[in-house]
Amino acid sequence: MNIESTERTLDLTGHFLIAMPDMGDPVFSGTVTYLLVHDDDGALGVIINRPLEVELQEVFKAAQIETYEPDVGELPVYHGGPVTPEQGFILHRRRERSWSSAITNDELSLTTSRDILVDIASKNGPEEYLFCLGYSGWTKGQIEEELKTNAWLTVKADIDIIFSPNSEKYSQALKQLGIDQAVLSGQGGQA
Questions:
Q1: Are 165 and 48 in contact (CB under 8 A)?
Q2: DSSP labels for 13-42?
Q3: Family, per the entry (predicted)?
Q4: What 3-state class would DSSP assign to 78?
């Protein structure tokens, strides 16, 4: 008799990965990462709370895209992760106009095409977005192993936190779990 496993794999698509305070990897220390996709092949997301000392106007200039609205270029560029850090990725709500998006889930899209940059520069782009350089990726089973070592906390993502302009995204994500950042310990236990 052949009995198939009905065990469901962990699916963190649309969740935040919140780095524990004692995370040894400086790329992710103190970060909140939004997972756009998590399936049997691995996971892909972008860090949402690590602004770089670069503004979007510098991206427009490098891409030779003219902007007519000065305030558009004043938004920060984020470090999305260590994978292809020279590539730009725009995270935006899926319900808005469709651009040539590389990856989408039920709520958000991650777009890499030049057309969305041109539209953002002319204020015809998505209403809310993050421009990230690079993305974060995990191989099959990697996140599950990191969760076993208490490297991350996870919670269903609040999309409003992603697009909020403030620097409190880490503490806001923790509050979704009922955790005060001031009392968060770097030590975790396993039952």
A1: no
A2: TTEEEEE-TT---TTTTT-EEEEEEEETTE
A3: Belongs to the UPF0301 (AlgH) family.
A4: strand
Q: What are phi and psi of 53, to 5 degrees?
A: -90, 50
Residues 82 and 89: beta-carbon distance below 8 Å = no
Tokens 């670069």 sit on residue: 54
Say how far apart CA 18 and CA 119 lie, in whole Å. Answer: 32
Which residues are within 8 A (CB) of 128 and not within 5 positions of it... i.e. 6 or more apart? Answer: 92, 93, 163
Alpha carbon 156 to its chain's center: 13
What would the CATH number be for the domain defined by 15-183? 3.40.1740.10
Distance CA 158, CA 172 (A): 9
pTM above 0.85, yes or no: yes
Find where tokens 């698509």 sit: 13
Distances (CA, A) of 179 to 20, 170, 182, 183: 12, 11, 9, 8
* Every domain of the chain and the residues it spans: 15-183
